[in-house]
């Protein structure tokens, strides 16, 4: 199946470069471009691409606001949002994840890293630049500990009550960034069994992907910012 991609960036040169990389890859096609967040929202709703590559800083409507608009709209939206930025700032990453983005990649990533990120996100998984994954999740959790209102989120006890003991074990390792294969080794389970547990966790908690599950684990206090 061909992966359809929309590119949203306010710099024409960046859009052209991203298009060239994506269209050079068999099985991927660029179906549209947008020069700001408002255009991106309209184009995504009209074209319904598999993946939207979204710059975080854009005029009129930034990438975070655009992602929030798309992910909070009526009914599930099929497009997965991969945020791109030159700004290595944790606050922007955290905002993008809370808005509903499925991944975050720095613009200094290689072409191979970009293509792999598109594949991963299109397949329903989530991806973060490796250098920021755990630090960002910990920052998001610390934000709640520093006084954010927790009334609208589950606490650790609630998550444990909604999941089986084994599912909690799997969630703790997902939150620490382990792959299904690595979780299988740690818990002495087949990778296929781990995959089933992850799918059950997402279904029970009403989450889109393993990244959102990791966020929920940190938010709830099930995993603490400085480990256990």
UniProtKB/TrEMBL annotation:
SUPFAM superfamilies: C-terminal effector domain of the bipartite response regulators (SSF46894), CheY-like (SSF52172)
Family annotation (SMART domains): HTH_LUXR, REC
Superkingdom of the organism of origin: Bacteria
Domain HTH luxR-type, residue spans: 156-221
PROSITE patterns, alphabetized: HTH_LUXR_1, HTH_LUXR_2, RESPONSE_REGULATORY
Domain Response regulatory: residue ranges: 4-122
Keyword Cell inner membrane tagged: no
Keyword annotations: DNA-binding, Phosphoprotein, Transcription, Transcription regulation
Matches recorded under InterPro entries: CheY-like_superfamily (IPR011006), NreC/VraR/RcsB-like_REC (IPR058245), Sig_transdc_resp-reg_C-effctor (IPR016032), Sig_transdc_resp-reg_receiver (IPR001789), Tscrpt_reg_LuxR_C (IPR000792), WalR-like (IPR039420)
Modified residues (4-aspartylphosphate): 55
Name used for this protein in its record: Response regulator transcription factor
